[in-house]
Amino acid sequence: MQTLFLPIAAPDAEFYRRALHRQTQLTKPPGSLGRLEQLAVALAALQRRDQPALDNIHISIFAADHGIAAEAVSAFPQAVTAEMVKNFAAGGAAVNVLARQLNAHFEVVDVGLLNPVELPSVIRQRAGAGTENFKIKPAMSEAQLQIALAAGRAAVSRALVGKADIFIGGEMGIANTCSASAMAAALLAVPADEITGAGTGLNAGQIRHKAAVIQLALQTHCQRLTTPLAVLQTLGGFEIAALAAAYISAAQQRLPVLVDGFISSVAALLAARINPDCRCWFFYGHRSEEKGHQQVLDALAAEPILQLGMRLGEASGAVMAVPVLQMACRLHNEMATFSQARISAGL
Amino acid sequence: MQTLFLPIAAPDAEFYRRALHRQTQLTKPPGSLGRLEQLAVALAALQRRDQPALDNIHISIFAADHGIAAEAVSAFPQAVTAEMVKNFAAGGAAVNVLARQLNAHFEVVDVGLLNPVELPSVIRQRAGAGTENFKIKPAMSEAQLQIALAAGRAAVSRALVGKADIFIGGEMGIANTCSASAMAAALLAVPADEITGAGTGLNAGQIRHKAAVIQLALQTHCQRLTTPLAVLQTLGGFEIAALAAAYISAAQQRLPVLVDGFISSVAALLAARINPDCRCWFFYGHRSEEKGHQQVLDALAAEPILQLGMRLGEASGAVMAVPVLQMACRLHNEMATFSQARISAGL
């Protein structure tokens, strides 16, 4: 647990200054590449490179089941978690298509499916056979939380062995927007109905039911919800714990992170509440359609790169943003300067 | 001139229906890929393919000078138009970096620089040595307009010979946001100061001056500005005329178009006013920071793919959106269906 609190470096001030200066020299009006300039400069300062680059992308999908699924809070049956893990293993999911296109390293971690998926390509680091139903009791034990956190750290270790330039985490777990919404409500101190959304496709009545389940759980556990880790243990999912630990571990080891949508952002918020310095290492891939995402992004002062109306999870929105970051790097590295191109300066 | 009014096909209803149906079968909650689903379906219907694709990208940059530059309406001196054409030819501009990354076909067309750039890689199809100062007299003659329109059509012919899957037009021309703002004000019937922006980087006082120049021109020429082509001839630029003709010609020949930022969108608005059916063939790369862009996009009912705070022109925002469209196609084509992956259906 103490690992979570180890210090995190700030972005490098000298590489930041140099990157900012280079942007003023490139053959374009100052500021005319907008976010692309900021992204390249931020990455240069994190990577401590004059030529920032995202050649080597690491994607870890953490999958786990949720006891709260028994409360009919998802549009899909619980069996879909394991079925989608098999789909990831077979290469048929959205994130597989995107990962192939980017030549990214892709892996799936079973951090607590109800029934293990027996496939050689699925990494098994299981904290349990799904969480408990948090409407009734805390989602996981202290020991289970430790296993889930360790699974996140292990994924970052593999990313570093593979010389990754960026870490992307994703999640799969039927009912996990219910868990994430409960944690967001607890962390942001807002009523459940202000933050609870449709997940994979609930209708208005079903969303009200989901929010009521969450509100009851918040009341039941209110004495426990005193620290970010207590929120995670009481309302969390194994895959969300793994994501939060992975984000902190990546930041501690100077590996930039690209955060996905609502559930991943709740994991990022947990990480930021546990060890606030990690936030400097986070990029945000996209703004999800899921209702609570904007509130969580606001709490993180996050500006997502894309707004494409996506709400799939499984890292898909983060992976979609990779080409934008790559283009930002290439523009920074490859454009001619005014003096190289002998171009007259502006007013 | 009559060529502009030749008929344009509608998207194919049968390919549209089939693509929409396929999206419901893919292993994701319905609608969870947001814009990516819509983009893939739209492209399938335009390309008449069950597997839409953007493998072959054609980029034409049209460059020309503007007489209105004499009114001190740009942050950069007029010499920069030709200097940037040389930068394009040398591969040092932002769009070069992006085009290389996409393995796109890239070309620059001198459609009316003040002084021709004598480089073998620059295509010369000149309508004149820059336009006239439209504060004083119409920007171009009828004959010059014809040459500029033909230059746009010729670029599309080259794209078709090269088996392009999409046409991207870009522009370079110091003071061309002044011309584009004047045309947008005329076409949308709004006062100049509601639509005039900073261009390459004017301050507030300079923007007021630029708007006053435009407002005076609108008053001077008000009797002439009765048709879209008259607006183009009176207030336009050669590169903007080329873009408008290219967009119409592409649509007439079933080649989808990816529109760039403010100036390109004004060309798209001209095209839509000349031959409204062309709009079905347009995708919009990004929302520019330039003040008038949103009004022009609204008039076109356009939803840009990216919002990255860019305002560079030279096709850069359109080219940035290509990876999003490519990913949308690959997701559509390569994701497993529920039955292939044996995944339980939702509620």
Keywords:
homodimer; 347 residues; alpha/beta; Rossmann fold; 6-stranded parallel sheet; 13 helices; 6 strands
Q: Indicate the percent of residues in helices of chain A.
A: 40-55%
Domain count of chain A? 1
Tell me the fraction of residues in β-strands of chain A, as a range.
Answer: 5-15%
Most extensive chain contact?
A-B, 58 and 58 residues
Q: Which CATH architecture of chain A?
A: 3-Layer(aba) Sandwich
Shape of chain A: globular
Overall CATH class of chain A: Alpha Beta
Structural class of chain A: alpha/beta
For this entry, what is the oligomeric state of its chains?
A: homodimer
Mean pLDDT of chain A: 97
- The Rg value of chain A, from CA coordinates, equals 20 Å
Query: Looking at CATH, which topology of chain A would you report?
Result: Rossmann fold
CATH superfamily of chain A: Nicotinate-nucleotide-dimethylbenzimidazole phosphoribosyltransferase (CobT), large domain
Low-confidence stretches of chain A: none
How far apart lie the N and C ends of chain A?
56 Å
Give a short account of the largest sheet of chain A: 6 strands, parallel
Summarize it:
Two copies of one chain form a homodimer. Chain A is α/β, with parallel strands linked by helices.
Commentary on this structure:
Two copies of one chain form a homodimer. Chain A is an alpha/beta fold. Chain A has one domain: Nicotinate-nucleotide-dimethylbenzimidazole phosphoribosyltransferase (CobT), large domain (Rossmann fold). Helix content of chain A is 47%, strand content 9%. Chain A is built from 13 helices and six strands. In chain A, α9 packs across α10. The longest helix of chain A is centred in the middle third of the chain and has 20 residues. The mean pLDDT of chain A is 97. Chains A and B meet through α3, α4 and α12 of A and α3, α4 and α12 of B.
